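Example record

One chain of 359 residues, shown exactly as stored in the release files.
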Amino acid sequence: MPSTPSCADAAAPRRARDVGLACGRLKPGPRNAITDVPGVRVGHCTLSDGATQTGVTAILPHGGNLYRDKPVAAADVLNGFGKSVGLTQVEELGALETPILLTNTLSVGTVATALIRHAIAANPDIGRTTATVNPVVMECNDGPLNDIQALAVTEAHAAAALAEALASADGAAVAVGSVGAGRGMSCFGFKGGIGTASRRIKLDGKRCHLGVLVLANFGRAGELRLPDGRRVGPPPQDSDPEKGSVIVIAATDAPLDHRQLRRVIRRAGVGLARVGSFWGHGSGDIALGFTTANRIDHDETADSVPFRVLNERRIDALFEAMAEATQEAVLDALVAATPVTGRDGATRPCLSALLTAAF
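Predicted structure tokens for this chain:
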């Protein structure tokens, strides 16, 4: 079993657009990634050792002290078959105060503890002279490929993912595919994993971005739909349930309040439906979003504070961006995924191989 973190190679073989799977009409940002939103950083720690095929992915809204400088945030649950931590407080208070960590289902508690330690190290007053901290951890079940009962993910692995994110440059490319939390994931009968995409939006003459990162581990085999309408993969069995999960993380630098942000991230469901999902009973389909344009100062003493919000006559632009970026991020995860052989020799075909054969 791995005893030390093995962080992912940043190189991904291909992206969705490399094989003609662009979605929608809006233009992507320069990296077509969640990191097109200034300040956002992503890091991975990948565990790959025989039956252990899992990991941790970290998303940082900005490189500062998140507990002291909290981005406005919101969560939306399409289908709640999941074991995430921290969503209740995000919805109640409308803010993030830690990075977001993604991992496998049975590692949520361990990874949450690592986030708490990370926050306390920077804020020794937590739980003593000020409030406690709300760690945000989201998960998918990678059990078919990963020996999830081994509980291989440690606090050190979570810390390594955080360290990689903190060390990355502003606007850096995001490693996608079978990396980090995506290492053991499956999607529509194919190898799944991490995918990302972004869209440009112009507001008041200035360019903003909305970026999405997905952990794709959902969908019945044979029900994947490509942007041109093709259905690919083995034929589904009517008796097979729709199960798995997808976590959608959205970032923007558009000035939204909590209510507006929740309206935007709910459109993740449009993108998921476009690729063939109907959010089955056994699927955990959850979106979480944040804006870097509105922050909450933990130590604020004023009775009232200024706050910018979007003119809702312009919110359709973000709805469209969210739908397109989610759809493309799922396809990105599928195209970038590389072969993984895990527990009991289990494996999944790669969509990129099928598309290459078709060409």
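Notes: The longest helix spans residues 315-336.
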